[in-house]
# Entry
Amino acid sequence: MTTILTSYSLVPEIQHWYNRFIINSKINKYRVPPPVDIPQEYLGDNAFIDMLFNDQYNKSTYEYNYIIETDPLSIPRVVATRLQVYPGSSKYMVLDSSGSNIFNLQPDDFSTLDALLAYRNDSTSLTVIDSTSINFISDSSAGIYILYANIDALTTELSKMIYLYLTLKIYGEFQRYNNEQLISTGGLLETCYESYLIDQYFCFMVQNKPGLIYDCPIT
# Structure
């Protein structure tokens, strides 16, 4: 399932981290205009969106619940005018553990997000085992983490893409992903994350399989 956000909802973590990704991306550089950046002081400390896009994420947990910011003085000036265009429906979302799962994350999402957290903290600690039963096993005392999953068994777009990211980074498996048939079908977060995934695959191919990259002649 995709996000349940409306077009009038603004999530600062998406604005910030997608801005950083677009500016530093290797593929499609300068073709996709970056969104307006949100200063980091307005961001939550351990947003799962940060973990998705930030290769240097090193927090021990992640948060995914959001509430609507009701104090206009707490909204960054860079987006305040934009929100006032539709004052009756615009919403500025703030990361808060007491809030709601606005991205409609499902059990498969949490299994793969937990695995991604383990990978972010120690890239050598995670093992991915092919399985039609989705499960994440954690033994923090031993530093051992196992994700049991299969691309066909995963039921959400985000979980499929996290799985592809992990198997690429850990095992160098690039054959599983066919970017001629996109996984995301229009959800804001899923669309943004798939562009990040494509960039990761491109960087891997340039470094490890340059002969397989189609070199389009300039006319």
